[in-house]
Write a structure and sequence with these properties.
The N terminus is likely disordered. By secondary structure, the chain is α/β, with parallel strands linked by helices. It starts with 13 loop residues before the first strand and ends with a helix.
Length: 233
């Protein structure tokens, strides 16, 4: 899915946005124009593990295949920005030629052999089948600092997430060979900021933003400027 026209003459690489669990490419609708105004060409993917189908069994490897295929189609230099769960398929897939940077936005920057289920200590189910509903209070959990109308709009679009996507472990960690940036969301209620700091230590550089879990909805202009400033380094 292409959100904007080809890249401006600034020479910036394409940015591929990878959404998190329960979401879709729709979640970037406020951030994309801000990035476009700063000269980026913006591309997105739809991860198959997030679906309204209660029988969906697409897993993290299917998501990674989707990301990898999209990267192969784009050509040229690409920055991959992944949010939350999206960090897993991005980490699995971003070793393809042309990826110049991985940006983790409150995202899972994990090691090989790790999965969300394995890290949860039994809090998340493990298996090949089944789906998980979104959090019962997404307004507080995911969009605490977003405007009410935006939070409601987003919450109404959430779908089911496959258990398999949380169960499949990484087989590779692209951040070990691709330069990476981590953006810690200081007011996150979904992924503990302290855990984000642990993951951020694996990145080449890191930043903090005074946002809840979804700054692409609560402060898209500020997030776009941070991403662009980081790319200029």
């Amino acid at each position: 899915m292409t959100i904007n026209a080809p890249a401006a003459a600034s020479g910036r690489p394409t940015i591929l946005l990878v959404h998190g669990a329960w979401h879709g490419a729709w979640c970037w609708e406020l951030l994309a124009p801000e990035l476009r105004d700063l000269g980026w060409r913006v591309e997105t993917v739809e991860l198959p593990s997030a679906s309204a189908d209660p029988d969906n069994t697409a897993g993290m490897y299917d998501d990674a295949c989707t990301v990898r295929n999209r990267l192969s189609d784009l050509g040229g230099e690409v920055t991959v920005l992944a949010h939350s769960y999206g960090g897993l398929p991005a980490t699995e897939a971003a070793t393809v030629p042309g990826v110049t940077r991985l940006v983790y936005l409150a995202a899972m920057q994990l090691e090989e052999c790790e999965s969300l289920s394995s890290l949860s200590g039994g809090a998340l189910p493990h298996g090949e089948t089944g789906t998980l509903k979104p959090h019962e209070d997404p307004r507080d959990h995911l969009y605490a600092d977003a405007p009410d109308d935006v939070a409601q709009w987003a919450a109404e679009r959430l779908v089911l997430q496959s258990v398999k996507s949380f169960s499949e472990p990484l087989t590779t960690a692209a951040w070990k060979t691709v330069p990476s940036t981590y953006i810690v969301c200081e007011r996150d209620r979904a992924i503990d900021p302290g855990f984000q700091e642990v993951m951020a230590a694996r990145a080449e550089r890191s930043y903090r933003i005074p946002a809840s879990h979804s700054p692409f909805l609560s402060m898209p202009a500020e997030l776009a400027r941070l991403i662009t400033a980081d790319a200029a380094l």
